[in-house]
Amino acid sequence: MKKGSSIVYINFPPYDNAGRILDYLIDNFNIVVHFSYDHLRLKKGRRSRLSVYENGKLVFQKNLVWLRTHPILLFPSLPFVAFFIFTQSLRYILKLKKKYKKFDVYLTVNAFTAWCGNIYRSLGLVEKTIFWVWDYFPADYPDLRLRIARWVYWKFDKPALNSSTKVVFLNSQLRIVRKKHDKRLLRKNSLIIPIGTNPTDILPKKKNLIIGHMGMLKMGQGLDVLLDNVEYLINIFPKLKIEIIGSGPEENYFKKKAKKFKDTVRFYGFIEKDDDVDKIMKRWSIGIATYMPTKWSEHYWTDPSKIKAYLNQGVPVIATNVPKFAEEVKFSKAGIVVDYYKNQEFIDAVKSIIKNRKSFSENALKLAKKYDYRKLYPKIFD
After folding, report:
1. Which of 155-159, 180-184, 252-256, 303-307 is predicted least confidently?
2. C-beta atoms surrounding 69 within 10 Å
3. Element (H or E) spanning 238, and its range?
4. Percent of the chain scored above 90 by pLDDT?
5. Coil vs helix vs strand at 16
6. Contacts of 205 by beta carbon, 8 Å cutoff, 6+ apart
7. Are 66 and 48 in contact (CB under 8 A)?
8. How far apart are CA 152 and CA 139, in angstroms?
9. Which of 61, 60, 62, 57 has the alpha carbon at shortest distance from 30?
10. Distances from the Cα of 94 to the Cα of 4, 89, 128, angstroms
11. For 6-193, which CATH class?
């Protein structure tokens, strides 16, 4: 990959710049065409958007068709969302190709958009397609609507893997689980490149006691573990503050749950700029990643970008043993792994980290430096 190359990149908020991947593309490609599709339509004002960068500068931005629907119609409307993703990407790639002559690379992290990219390549619109596999969605989800949506999604996963020019996995589990479904899907040219980090140069000073959570506000992310123990924690740490960054389908549920602790708990909502997130997060004493251990959770297979975002700022982590990366957090003493269903373990973990704050923070930053995105991402494009 050389400076002077062009790339089409498709992802979904709030993950467009997870691990600073968009920053890397803007710094290393002459032309970046970025499609950001808000397929879940979770927040008023957030739109699907096309952005074009030339030589590191934003030169064009346009809101795309965006289907705002009632929550009841969220799943039935997904085929229409997919249609608009395919047709709008096709339309603007065709239009921009007239200006830029060629697109060297097409990168995406989703099976459907990877399938789209292979069609665009067959039409001669892009030269090379890279499917960076971020997810595995177990099909046996208890909600019938989501189970059907996942079944449909899997119809795109196999052809996307087989037809992409290059396949990259976040971790070995994602590659292994595909092999179990079809041994032909374990490609010889597939790499393992995890989510990168952007570690701070200097360990921030933690003056106040703040426990934070960043990520999509939905069941399964583990925010309940924190909110269920707020009252007890306040009794131990009267000056405790809790800060929550993100939005999601259960946002109102969590706000209602935290209502009686309004002097302690603050909801920031979705924050678009990563630098703004970092400014808030660097003040935190602890970051929460207590994923719920359900058999249909996708977090067993993915690489948790929120944990690495915490580590970037030297923020120790309290996690459950759901994502594989939690084992490395524990081994590196960059945080503590707890049982989701044992509140006392969570409370003891908070006490332990506060008691040994400096040591945990130093270990967190040390672990972050191991995964610096500037060292990892060039391999994706070699």
Report:
1. 180-184
2. 14
3. none
4. 69
5. coil
6. none
7. yes
8. 10
9. 57
10. 20, 8, 16
11. alpha beta
